[in-house]
């Protein structure tokens, strides 16, 4: 007998500890820079921040630059800070890798519920959130105002990289042949780089994730209201409102993630009922005295009544549970494993509106009419309503049921030695969180100093480079997953991309807005907000209402990345938006 899984309460407490470790570590950075009572000001205490690379020699302290935390290396040269940025960036990449690996292990043990819906999305966004937090957490207000641009660059760069470079790359590596009706053929890729003959497809649930992503852009709009309306006051109020909206959207998204497994189970139950009914209607169409539906789409009530009398074996004017089960058992369901008891219960619950444990003739006719309307909706545009029509309905419902069943079974895979796996998962999460908290601040310092030494705006450095550190592990994982060239894996890949953007637009933005509001910083990021808004809306609308993406769509996504950089540069340095 396998060992029992660890208690969920213990795991939840440990996950809370992981998140608290990150928050306390980042907050401890602020205390260290502010100094302790009785020890003088921050400048008199042991200073942990790197000096500005461009500081005149006369302003430097005796030992030149100062080591972060008192022992990490420091430098005042551009090349040295570039090396430090790469080194700390690699460590942040490893922390993101550990967090991702730990999250996946924990998800295997406890499933998607509260842990998967609440904690894991937060842990996935933790490296970005910590980098944004430390970018303006410590130092004077002027230093924070300068460095917080790094946090905005990371926020914009991470979001835009996910929706452009990563999205387009997944289309390329996951492309399959498109059939004549524009549906993809899993694992078949014979048309090379045909812009219209190859592409990817996702399920309908993925388009819902894209819509949620598009809605998550709302806090950006709220904080820009004073700039949009050219108001001279109300900036702090809109910052607070934007923060509240971001937190509410974050909570709503987490609740949606928590209840999504329940929603999936309900969908699976309904798809099973729909497939059973399609099989019963197909069987009735073939074995009764005429078609259930005429060629013009009108239901044939007399044939439906004949079917009722055929099922009503004792001719008492109502169908009992035993009679219904006997009829269902007589139908050959070859494509699914049918539990006749469960199927009977579902059909009885659907037809028996009077709740008297039997189906009367009127209830039976009404129930069949409802399902015939559902068949016409599912198999729209099939032409004449013949036997082929009912067969198409049965095939379609079977495919839908099997797709949901595969997903449900994947979510419920059992693993060996869950206690050890849980310990390993928690260890990886703690290690990843500790590394992210420890090296976020040195990375921000190195980027800021490199920017000062080279006169390259810190926004563009953080926009391009820092997302590579925090998102590379999930990007590589997404590309590998997409390369399996199956609709199911592609749907999961793109859903995770949209989920990552949603967390950026809610959790990471909430951290940024709280930082700006609490420290009294100036909100002056109109151009950055505009490019985030444009990319999220364009890709959100593009992916919310379609599930097929030919190869040419990847070039649309790729083009948005350089256009975003050019737009920020023009607005800030040519039109003076900064």
Automatic annotation (TrEMBL):
Location in the cell: Cell membrane
Occurrences of domain EF-hand (ranges): 299-334
Gene name of this polypeptide: LOC123164691
Membrane-spanning residues: 77-93, 105-126, 146-173, 237-259, 422-440, 460-482, 494-519, 525-542, 549-571
UniProt cross-references to InterPro entries, sorted A to Z: CaH_exchang, EF-hand-dom_pair, EF_Hand_1_Ca_BS, EF_hand_dom, NaCa_Exmemb, NCX_ion-bd_dom_sf
Membrane topology designation: Multi-pass membrane protein
GO MF terms, alphabetically ordered: calcium ion binding; calcium:proton antiporter activity
SMART domains assigned to the protein according to its UniProt record, in alphabetical order: EFh
GO cellular component: plasma membrane; vacuolar membrane
Signal peptide from the UniProt entry: 1-25
Recorded family membership: Belongs to the Ca(2+):cation antiporter (CaCA) (TC 2.A.19) family.
One Pfam match: Na_Ca_ex
GO biological process, one term: sodium ion transport
Designated name of the protein: EF-hand domain-containing protein
UniProt keyword annotations, A-Z: Antiport, Calcium, Calcium transport, Cell membrane, Ion transport, Membrane, Metal-binding, Repeat, Signal, Sodium, Sodium transport, Stress response, Transmembrane, Transmembrane helix, Transport
